[in-house]
Every structure is written in C-alpha cells, then in structure tokens.
Design goal:
Elements: H1 5-8, E1 16-24, E2 28-30, E3 33-35, E4 38-47, E5 50-60, H2 67-70, H3 82-92, H4 98-116, H5 120-123, E6 132-133, E7 136-138, H6 143-155, E8 161-165, H7 170-183, E9 189-193, H8 208-220, E10 224-226, H9 233-243, E11 247-249, H10 257-263, E12 271-274, H11 282-294, E13 298-301, H12 309-321, E14 325-326, H13 336-339, E15 342-344, E16 347-349, E17 354-357, E18 367-368, H14 370-376, E19 379-382
Parallel strand pairs: 7-8, 8-9, 9-10, 10-11, 12-13, 13-14
Antiparallel strand pairs: 1-4, 1-19, 2-3, 4-5, 6-17, 15-18, 16-17
Length: 383
C-alpha cells in the first residue's frame, strides 16, 4: 500500500491466526431500539514471537452467532508476509464484512509495530502526541438514569466533554439535555447522538420541523448533534448552515472509509466522525481523517461499544491524528474482565480526563496474559 511504505517493507510471515469470542450482556438503548447483548470477536495474529491484537463486534442480540462462519475470510492472510497482507486487505478486503476487515487491519498494524519495534502510529505516519479529551457516553432514555450516568462521568474524571444518546422526541431529548447539564459544570461540551431519529428516511426537501427541533436542542444546551436525520451530503451542508452555531457531526455517511473518501463534501458538519467498527480498514480510516482535517473541519473518533483491544488502538489513532475528542473508551463493568488480563497498555487517562499515551511502545503497546484472556472468552477458534 503506497501510502504506508513502512508497512510495505515488512517481510515477516504471519504464522498463526486465532479468533476469540468475548461477550457482554449489559443493555444499551438507542433511538432505533435496544441492544440486550453483544458478541465481540478478538483476533490474534502472530509472527516472530509477537502477537498483534484487534477487536470488533460480531453481532448484536444474537448469542447463537458462531466464530467459524463469521471469521472464515481471515484464513486467507495466514502464511502471508505482513506487507502482502496489508496489500491484500486493501485490495480484497472491501468485499468482506467491513467489521472483519477492520479488525484484521488493527491486528496487522499492531503486529507490524511489535515485529519491527516501532509504534504502530509511527508506521502509519501519524505525528500527534498531545492528549485528547475522552468522552463518556450515556445511553439512557430515562432522565433519572441519565443523571446517574453524568455522575459516573464526573466520578471517572470525564468533565470537559460528554455524549448522550437522543431519541427523536423533542420533549424527551430536551429533558435529557437539561438533566445532564444540571449535573455537570457549565463549561461542558455536550454532544448528542440521535441516530437519525429526527428523520428516519431521506426526503427530497429538508423539513422545517428538523431545523426547528435542532434549534430547540441547541437552546436547551446541546453543543453538537451527531446524525440528526438521514440527509444527502448536499443537505448536510444546507442544514449545518441553517442551524449554526450548533455543530453537526456526520457519521453514518462516513462508512466505510474508502467509500466516504470519494463522496464527503466540505462543510457537511463542523466535526466529522470516524466511527470505529464501521471503517472497513484503519489504513483507509486514517487517510479519510487526514482528508477531513485538510478541509479545516474538526475530527472525532467515535465508538462502536468496544470493550477490548481496539479501545486503546482508537485512542492512539485519535492522539496521532490530533482529533478533537475520542469516545472509544473502556467501559465500566463491560471492560472489567478484559482489563484484568492486561499486563501492559500504551494509553492512560490523565488528571484532566484526557487520554494520553506512553510514547515509544511497539505496536499499539497492548500486552495480555493470554491464558487469563482465553478463560474469559466463550469460544476460541484457531484458523
């Protein structure tokens, strides 16, 4: 892949590939429905005595899902050199499940850095080193529970930025915004994600009601709104102009990254979201992020409810890219079993609630007690 010459020079062979299934049963609530349980896949690639790790969601509300059918594509990169696998995933991976391909590129970049003793972000040409605000996300449609979520964010030190899920109901959404504002300090940057709840189908003309509702949310205390409705890219530009100073955040139209690089327009929002789990490739995601930054827009690194190895990866990419904030944080309760298996990690939270990185650690710096990790997984598959 010509954009990443440091990866193209690596001839270490991938000698093994293993998939693990990591489950969580803690509910999450969205405008489109509820997630009662999630099935995550964790990939380990090995070469020259080193392990590269990646993670993504396999399925939601489908505990019967099996690793073998989902991850069969990954057999193809076993036996390739790292350089060959990078090219293969960029050329052939676009026909795969984007989640599977993204997970493979994460594990591959981690492995590449560990094999050559360099940070993965350095191999990707990313130079940012300053800490990035971490964003705690509240997924509650009950205002009293949302208030408790805000207290949790404060207790964990995430006080400069906060994200809440909104539900396409102006009365409820306004109450959620005001409830959270009452808990947090006045200077909070509050982000709301509607998951297109204010317009579930794209229309030829922008409804006046959409603009009115977005202005109400801003008046209630919302600083930025992610995916308020389904819009064409041209409509995104028009709505952002109409509802300023509220910042819009395009998300769903940014997936997968290689496609979005051809279609996004300047001024669709004041901040653009690179959504982990949906990019299809972290290589393409980094290139898309750089395209966005070149327009002068802001950049956020979102989340896909990740709980394992990919959290620290996306945090490091956020730092390396100089993003405005990162949402892909380890989750209380959900990530606890995984974190108990971690013996080394490159990222940490500083006293200001920002995510910082220990520089110079090879790959993405994650080291696991592999025996302990295998015990918390519900399934393992050697490919």
């Amino acid at each position: 892949m010509r954009e990443y010459p440091a990866l193209a020079a690596l001839d270490a062979v991938i000698v093994s590939a293993s998939l693990y299934r990591l489950d969580t049963n803690i509910p999450r609530h969205f405008s489109f429905g509820d997630w009662l349980n999630r099935q995550h896949a964790v990939l380990r690639l090995q070469s020259e005595g080193q392990s590269g790790w990646g993670e993504n969601i396999i399925s939601i509300n489908h505990p019967e899902t099996d690793l073998a059918s989902w991850g069969v594509f990954l057999q193809a990169i076993k036996g390739m050199t790292i350089a060959q696998a990078v090219d293969f995933l960029d050329e052939q991976g676009r026909s795969w499940d984007p989640k599977c391909c993204e997970m493979a590129t994460i594990a591959l970049a981690d492995l590449a850095g560990k094999v050559c003793g360099r940070p993965a972000v350095e191999l990707l040409g990313l130079t940012g080193a300053s800490p990035v605000p971490g964003v705690h996300c509240i997924l509650e449609n009950d205002p009293s529970k949302a208030a408790l979520g805000a207290e949790t964010a404060k207790a964990h030190g995430f006080t400069s930025h906060l994200k809440i899920k909104l539900y396409g109901d102006p009365a409820l959404d306004t109450t959620l915004i005001q409830t959270v504002r009452n808990v947090m300090a006045p200077g909070l940057y509050l982000i709301g994600d509607v998951n297109c709840g204010y317009g579930t189908e794209q229309q030829d003309n922008i409804p006046d009601s959409l603009l009115a509702n977005l202005r109400k949310l801003h008046a209630a205390g919302l600083c930025a709104c992610e995916d308020p409705a389904y819009l064409s890219n041209t409509q995104w530009v028009q709505v952002q102009e109409a509802v300023a100073p509220l910042a819009l955040i395009p998300d769903y139209c940014m997936r997968p990254s290689y496609a979005a690089r051809k279609t996004i327009l300047p001024h669709m929002g004041k901040v653009y979201n690179i959504h982990p789990g949906c990019t299809g490739s972290i290589f393409q995601a980094c290139l898309l992020a750089q395209d966005i930054l070149a327009t002068g827009a802001g950049l956020m690194i979102g989340d896909d409810s990740l709980i394992g190895p990919s959290c620290t990866v996306w945090q490091q990419l956020a730092i390396g890219l100089g993003a405005d904030w990162v949402e892909a944080l380890e989750k209380p309760q959900e990530s606890d079993p995984f974190l108990a298996c971690v013996t080394g990690c490159a990222t940490y939270q500083d006293d200001a609630g920002r995510i910082a990185v220990h520089s110079g650690r090879p790959g993405f710096g994650l080291v696991l007690d592999e025996d302990a990790f295998e015990k918390i997984c519900s399934q393992k598959l050697d490919l």
